[in-house]
Amino acid sequence: MTPLLKLTQKLDTFFQHPAAKILQDTYSLKDHLHPTTRITNAAHAHLTTLTLLLMNQDFDEATLCQAIDLAIIPHDLLPKLCPQIPHDDNLLTLQHNLLHPSIQVQNALNLATSIVQSLLLTTPDPTTKTIQTYLKPFTQSLNLYRAGWRRVIPNAQHPPPHHTETIADHAWGTTLLTRLLTPQISLPPYAIPIVHDLPEIITGDFTPHDDISTMHKNNLETLALETLLAPLPPPSAHLLSTAFQRYQANQTPQARLSHIADKIDMALQAKIYEKKYQLDLREFLDSAQKYLDRHPPIPHTK
Tell me, what's the pLDDT at 41? Predict the structure, then answer.
């Protein structure tokens, strides 16, 4: 268990640590708009990671993983975080790698960013038209607000930068935390947090307050993802489908970490909204802690 992962297992302790404040400050990317595409920076990063996954026939696995690192991790985060978690080798390695990306990694990220911008600005590039077509259905996550916040926060659907979190914003946060907590990463495990809520584009966002069983929810989400992935080339569809199946099964170390990151993301967001809206959101913090207590991480093996 990495030092940061160990710290996050008891949320009351975690929120007293400087690392929690650093991550909460980083979550401003869920509010601030990207200067070109005018969606939140978090959502822009999420779409970029999806684009990189769809480029899995054009770049090797290591290149894509490192490009996703560059897409999701703000350049100023690790210099602030590493001194607070001084013996976390994973964070130190990440910091080094982000400072020295290969030309191939930078090319992959630049291409993915260009594709996202062309799609959102409706200025299609003929050379990437096909992948933009594949990506377009996933842009619906930009307009889907997380149901839990809509239930407790008045006027939760204000336009950015005053809106509450969308599915795309949450996917970025979960992917970021998964990466910070993970000592090693590869595809398809890295795809797990990126795709974990994509079915909600069709099903909507279920919460514990909804009258639906876990089995029925899983079945609906599986069918929804099959619909979303049907137009994709088989290698890309297989990558995303495999990642989602692993998330649902929650049996591998990376799947377990993605679920843990999902709960920590919710807890961080609850703390932010408690302060912003002067609300008592202890129910979200308690829910996250109960999950962490019942589902400890599975050790990674080399």
Answer: 95
